[in-house]
Design brief:
The protein is α/β, with parallel strands linked by helices and 701 residues long. It folds into three domains: 122 residues, Aminopeptidase, CATH 3.40.630; 245 residues, Rossmann fold (3-Layer(aba) Sandwich); 298 residues. Helix content is 52%, strand content 11%. It contains 25 helices and 14 strands. Strands 1-2-3-4-5-7-6 form a seven-stranded mixed sheet, with helices on both faces. The longest helix has 35 residues. The protein starts with a strand and ends with a helix.
């Protein structure tokens, strides 16, 4: 027998794995490594795979069971995972295999009727539990300190005015949240929150799920109003909304200490670090709330395979039951939590099923009605939809102010992505080719965008202030961003121009949103012109503080023109507040976007090419060529528009797209070919397209 490595990403080898698993009543699951045990004839008789630190899809043909093949195979997989840097290995298998894997030093973590979760190695759940215990201890120390601080404050108040002054001097005023004692006032009934006593949702036919020990309904005057010590909310927050905030607020009123666990797995629009930061900032004023790290042991898609289950509905239930059993066995006890809080789910079937199973698996589950706005639940999905539609007015009503900088940064990143993905583009990098560039491609540009995103977040927070940040602060952030970009691209200048223009716009947009949030403005059509004018003035003010540049494509292009024509570089356009963009390009783009024009981005690119002194074109060629580019763009745009106008307005967008694709898009491809041959790359136009898309995305229209 020998062990052969198979690559699940290779179609032929994947088919071989699938056939073997099917023979053993299993389904293939997501894996990045698979080891096959072959007999002397080269036939696969056993196999098992890995997805990072999770062993999956282990099977042994019936004819070879009892030959210790599983031991050899699992040992091989553990060894490989160890070599990849994983010290603790997880395993999902059928319950009947528990004894087998316990003999291989695996220990049980959680179980469900159809599957069990086990692990072996150093760390794992034990490290997670110890970390949670430390969090609990720290929260209790904080609570005790807070209590002492409040008692001292009370005594001081009772003593004298002099004591009050002493207290004012001695207490740390940087943490005023420690002085908030409003929730402790139980001497007056109006401050008594007993909402946690509502058990109407519980199934009284299953008393084991009903925790009513503290209730005496026959004598309500003797109700024990002491809330449970600890509770937990697990949430994704993609992004953090007022709905999440409301759920946390209501839950925090029902327990002494509430732990908010943010789902760690990065399969959302917003990264885990962003989502956790949003929650921390959004609940910083709620005294008895601790935001804690998520882990692989709480709602992690990576650790809940479905390959051995016959039906997907069974798979979903099994995943959820394992998650809940992990919570019941390990997470809740470590935190001293006895209550799990969830929001009601009126629409999503999977979430509603999860809530149902939660009631069955845990003793005390409390559902809190979701916050509504305009008759609909406030949800992260509504926010993401508003982001797609460029409706900041709606977003502002659905999220706390602390979430807005993250949204602005994401809209900036998405705008760069929209420009990159627009295909075809003349002389520019797109999905089809590298255009006139020899040192960059789509993958490198993608890496550059991903690298710049955290800096857009940083710039958004700089702008989200009561006063505009100084040129020095913005410049320093920009220098760090440019350095990170060049390190990621091995010195290739992928987005230097876009970083400048987009960076200024991000700071300005965040500043305007800060003002709007402070004034609780709702921007409608009547205020849109005022908003854009204010945004433009803010960009002007920021750009005015920047000194003249040297060594840029813009400055070199001016030199190449020899004063024969007035050339405006990126800084010049910014100092003017991008007059053409606000006056012409943005209305052009918005009009076609609202009409669902399939080629809105292509046309807007051409529209910008008609006007812009593209210093990148001048730098690569000359002023005469730059004028030729403008003229050719005007002609092609006219052709695009004529084709669109000729279409029957009652016809669907696909018909328009089909017609354009057969002629105008071919003309764009031809332009791309010719510009590539002539080393023409309208990079300045690409930057302005990104900026137009971004401003369009923060505009309510």
């Amino acid at each position: 027998m020998e062990i052969q490595t198979l690559n699940p990403a290779t179609p032929r080898q994947r088919q071989r794995i699938e056939a073997f698993l099917k023979r053993n009543a299993l389904r293939i699951d997501d894996m990045n490594y698979y080891a096959a045990v072959l007999d002397d004839d080269g036939e696969m008789i056993a196999g098992g795979g890995l997805k990072d630190d999770v062993i999956k899809c282990v099977a042994v043909d019936d004819a070879h069971k009892g030959e210790a093949i599983a031991n050899t195979l699992v040992s091989h997989l553990i060894s490989h995972a160890n070599q990849e840097g994983y010290g603790c290995i997880k395993l999902f298998t059928k319950p009947k295999n528990r004894q087998l894997f316990e003999s291989l030093s695996f220990r049980l973590l959680a179980e469900a009727p159809e599957a069990i979760l086990m692990e072996t190695g150093i760390g794992g759940i034990s490290n997670t539990v110890e970390a949670l215990k430390k969090i609990k201890e720290e929260s209790e120390k904080y609570k005790e300190y807070n209590k002492e601080c409040k008692e001292d404050n009370k005594e001081c108040k009772e003593d004298s005015k002099e004591c009050k002054e002493e207290e004012k001097t001695n207490l740390n005023t940087t943490t005023p949240q420690l002085l908030n004692t409003s929730y402790l006032n139980t001497t007056t009934p109006q401050h008594l929150n007993t909402s946690y006593l509502n058990t109407s949702y519980l199934n009284t036919s299953t008393p084991q799920h009903l925790n009513t020990s503290y209730l005496n309904t026959s004598t309500p005057q003797h109700l024990n109003t002491t809330p449970p010590r600890g509770g937990v909310v697990v949430m994704n927050c993609n992004p953090f909304t007022l709905g999440h905030r409301y759920l946390i607020e209501q839950a925090a009123k029902q327990v002494e200490q509430l732990y908010v666990m943010v789902v760690r797995e990065d399969c959302s629009l917003f990264a885990y670090t962003e989502r956790k930061a949003m929650v921390e900032q959004g609940v910083a004023d709620i005294e008895n709330v601790s935001v804690i790290d998520g882990s692989d042991y709480a709602i992690s898609r990576a650790t809940f395979p479905t390959y051995f289950l016959k039906r997907l509905d069974d798979a979903a239930d099994t995943q959820m039951l394992l998650d809940l059993d992990l919570f019941r066995r390990h997470i809740a006890p470590a935190l001293g939590a006895t209550v799990r809080f969830v929001g009601t789910e009126p629409t999503d079937q999977l979430t509603r099923r999860y809530n149902q199973l939660m009631h069955e698996a845990l003793k005390d589950v409390r559902e809190i009605n979701r916050l509504e706005k305009d008759g609909n639940a406030v949800s992260a999905s509504r926010v993401r939809k508003a982001m797609e539609e460029g409706d900041m007015n709606t977003i502002r009503q659905l999220v706390p102010p602390t979430t807005l900088p993250y949204i602005i940064a994401h809209l900036a990143t998405q705008a760069l992505q929209a420009e990159l993905d627009t295909t075809p583009k003349p002389g520019l990098v797109d999905k089809d080719n590298n255009g006139a560039h020899r040192d960059m491609d789509h993958a490198l540009m993608q890496l550059s965008i991903n690298t710049l995103h955290p800096y857009f977040v940083r710039l958004a927070f700089l702008g989200f202030a009561d006063t505009l940040p100084s040129h020095t602060v913005i410049r320093d952030a920009g220098i760090e961003a440019e350095k990170a970009m060049l390190e990621a691209t091995n010195g290739v200048n992928t987005h230097k121009g876009a970083l400048f223009s987009m960076g200024l716009a991000v700071v300005a947009a965040a500043y305007e949103e800060k003002k709007a949030a402070a004034n609780k403005e709702e921007r409608g059509k009547e205020r849109e012109e005022e908003y854009l004018s204010s945004l433009q003035l803010t960009i002007k003010a920021l750009a005015a503080s920047f000194p003249d540049t040297s060594g840029t494509h813009g400055s070199k292009a001016k030199q190449l023109s020899n004063g024969t024509t007035t050339i405006k570089g990126a800084l010049d356009n910014a100092r003017e507040g991008y007059e053409k963009l606000f006056a012409e390009w943005l209305p052009f783009y918005n009009e076609r976007r609202k009409s669902h024009d399939a080629h809105a981005l292509h046309k807007t690119l051409l529209r910008i090419m008609c006007d812009l002194d593209d210093t990148n074109v001048i730098y690569r060629t000359n002023v005469v060529t730059a004028e030729e580019v403008k003229q050719e763009a005007r002609a092609l745009l006219a052709s695009f528009e004529e084709a669109y106008a000729a279409e029957d307005k009652e016809k669907c967008a696909s018909a328009i797209e089909e017609k354009c694709a057969s002629a105008e898009l071919l003309a764009l491809k031809d332009m791309d070919r010719r510009y590539t041959e002539r080393n023409i790359s309208p990079g300045g136009t690409a930057d302005m397209l990104s900026l137009t898309v971004f401003i369009g995305s923060i505009q309510t229209y």
